[in-house]
Amino acid sequence: MKILVLGQGAREHAIVKALVRTGTAATDIIAAPGNAGIALDVRCEPGLNPNMPLDVVKFALEHKTELVIIGPEAPLIAGVSDALRSEGIAVFGPSQAAAQLEGSKSFAKEVMAAAGVPTGMARECTTIEEVVDAMDEFGAPYVIKADGLAAGKGVIVTSDRDAAIDHAMKFISMGILVEEFLDGQEVSLFFLSDGHSVLPLTPAQDFKRAFDNDEGPNTGGMGAYSPLPWLPEGFVEEVEEKVALPTVQEMARLGAPFVGLLYCGLIITKRGIRVIEFNARFGDPETQVVLRRLNSSLSNLLYKASTGHLEGVSDPEFTKDVAITVVLASEGYPETSAPNRPIYGIGDAEAQGVEVCHASTEKKVDDNRDALTKEDGKESLIATGGRVLSVVATGKDFAGARAQAYAGIEKIHLQGAHYRKDIAAKVSEPRVAN
Ligand code: AMP
Ligand code: GLY
Predict the structure, then answer these.
(1) How confident is the model at residue 262 (pLDDT cuts 50, 70, 90)?
(2) Which residue, judged by its Cα, is nearest atom 13 of ligand 1?
(3) Domains identified in the chain, total number
(4) Residue ID of nearest Cα to ligand 2 atom 4
(5) pLDDT at residue number 218
(6) Distance between CA atoms of residues 150 and 155, nearest Å
(7) Is 422 contained in some domain?
């Protein structure tokens, strides 16, 4: 099956690796724009902008693409799925309208209310006075959310009243959601959806804070692990029944069927499961561990979902082996961006048995090189900021997988880079909430 993967992060690299591992020929995959790491595995098309619907359609038609997999949210919001679908091309990724489940937190709350999905109480606010009233109603810690896409920076959870109000002022033009604070363990659980039926993948936990012991600012995610041995029996079935299926059914009822990946961001509170957010795409870095454990054919599952034929497909199979991923971030992430810097040692890391999924890397050709002697040594890899890569390790148990992941990441050299040392350090019991 000829597949086009849109995106350029470690998530897309993990998708590409999982496609190949579960049976798709590497020569049948193109990634656009891709990155320096993805280009080592499959053909990349750096010139194709994944957010331009007409360009993507033209490229997909020219290359006889049978399935387009959309990684990030931006192409969804830009309507790339709609454009592809209207040309009859199978696409794994919801329409612009259905992607509002991620794009608008107030829309997601309305859908949850209509579908009876358990979530935190929230107030929609358009003025700072309303924000302050809602803060007083719910009390501290305050949870303030920008009501739109804010590159992972839209949410603050703080007991500092001034910081909460400052955050609200920054995003008030988008609208603000003030939510009750929910205390408990966070779990990410992905479902494939064909618009009416859903199939669960396997639970993972993300480490959102920048530093060890869940300290520091929220990030896109600094690491993840799967499975979660401390989850109660029947958890996946409960989320399917109470969250994923009613949400997908409500979206169909609204005339905006959700075809793609429904990312359920959950908190397990003393009063039961609560949804804290939906995303309309695979999570990053959870995908790196979830798909690393997948044994079933990924292309088959995504194609079935994209073409409305999930019903009757058996649940995807996952290895019992555990997987962990540790993210290497550039200096200053998430608050400041670092200059482009060379990165070394990825081959040495891979020699430790880890898989390296690239995010912000580029190949740089030394301008002074002799055009006739195109030795590889003259090309260097540079990190372009943000989250740079994800190191993924598997093992029979977490102690082994952790040892391998950290042995790998220690081989990588990037000036000023940082990573968390406590990913999956305690997996026999839930991590203490921050
Ligand atoms: P979101 O982008 O909505 O997932 O929020 C980012 C992070 O803020 C989540 O992963 C949680 O760690 C935290 N968070 C969001 N909503 C709540 C809430 N109602 N109570 C406690 N923490 C929350
Ligand atoms: N890791 C969180 C996300 O992908 O949104």
Answers:
(1) very high
(2) 157
(3) 4
(4) 283
(5) 87
(6) 9
(7) no
